[in-house]
Recover the amino acids of this structure.
């Protein structure tokens, strides 16, 4: 059974409510129908008639109080709540939905901003980042072709501390959603000192941090991609690596590399890319690429339901 089928089946067992605020997008409407039909989750397609005026006013006032210290004005808040995105995020905050999936017709900064401002940041993880679940057909690497790529959507140039918590967040998601034992590789153009640069020093620092915070996590770096995922190459380039070329979580050094990497894998290897899945929030949320397919929306909803 492939990873995507397993995800959909696992979501069906919990049947959580997922809110989809982008009711005007035909792909979202079609996806909502599939999610309901297959019993993946309970769907709330947030059309204007489903917005309660009294509750909306309460959300406006609550949001205003949450951010008043930052100098926000009530008129600005009312304008923010003119669409459905912030209402959906506040519903999720309140527990009326288990999670939110958006991004088909909103940019990643719009979705991330709404989720951060409404849901808040997990105090354990301290940062918000994102990942993709990548399911590569006919692939012997990773977890029978299944990987997590991070961060591919939010933090442009992560520092050592951020890289550390991106890896921890991705590992948490791997356990909960995929049931995997995380094997984390910090990627670079260098393998364990074959080149010296600030970027490799950053990875070394991140590796030291993560070993103190989660000493039981199987993690290594810096690693070139082939040394991270191909056992035969790992034996040549870095025979002492605890990963042994079997990484299933790949942590990219920056957003450029992550975004390019997942799209190359998706298009050239015909991989299914599920995400971006937003990590580090108090409630689960998924962003969508504006070029997403109906299946992409269904899969993101399924992962969000599992996380809920």
């Amino acid at each position: 059974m492939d990873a995507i089928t397993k995800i959909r089946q696992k979501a069906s067992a919990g049947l959580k409510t997922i809110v989809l605020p982008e009711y005007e997008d035909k792909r979202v409407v079609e996806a909502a129908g599939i999610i309901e039909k297959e019993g993946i989750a309970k769907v709330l397609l947030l059309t204007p008639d489903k917005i309660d005026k009294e509750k909306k006013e309460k959300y406006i006032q609550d949001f205003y109080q949450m951010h008043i210290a930052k100098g926000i004005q009530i008129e600005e808040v009312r304008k923010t709540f003119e669409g459905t995105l912030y209402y959906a995020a506040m519903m999720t905050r309140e527990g009326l939905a288990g999670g939110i999936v958006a991004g088909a017709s909103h940019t990643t900064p719009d979705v991330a901003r709404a989720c951060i401002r409404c849901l808040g940041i997990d105090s354990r993880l301290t940062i918000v980042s994102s990942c993709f679940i990548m399911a590569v057909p006919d692939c012997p690497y990773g977890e029978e072709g299944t990987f997590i790529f991070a961060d591919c959507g939010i933090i442009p140039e992560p520092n050592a501390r951020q890289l550390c918590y991106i890896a921890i967040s991705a590992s948490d998601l791997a356990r909960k959603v995929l049931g995997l034992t995380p094997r984390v590789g910090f990627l670079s153009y260098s393998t364990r000192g074959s080149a010296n640069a600030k970027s490799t020093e950053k990875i070394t620092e991140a590796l030291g941090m993560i070993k103190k915070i989660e000493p039981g996590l199987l993690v290594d770096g810096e690693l070139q991609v082939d040394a991270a995922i191909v056992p035969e190459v790992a034996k040549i380039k870095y025979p002492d690596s605890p990963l042994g070329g079997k990484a299933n979580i790949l942590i990219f050094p920056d957003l450029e590399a992550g975004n390019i990497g997942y799209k190359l894998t998706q298009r050239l290897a015909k991989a299914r890319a599920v995400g971006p899945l937003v990590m580090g929030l108090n409630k689960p949320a998924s962003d969508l690429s504006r070029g997403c397919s109906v299946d992409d929306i269904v899969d993101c909803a399924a992962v969000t339901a599992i996380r809920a």
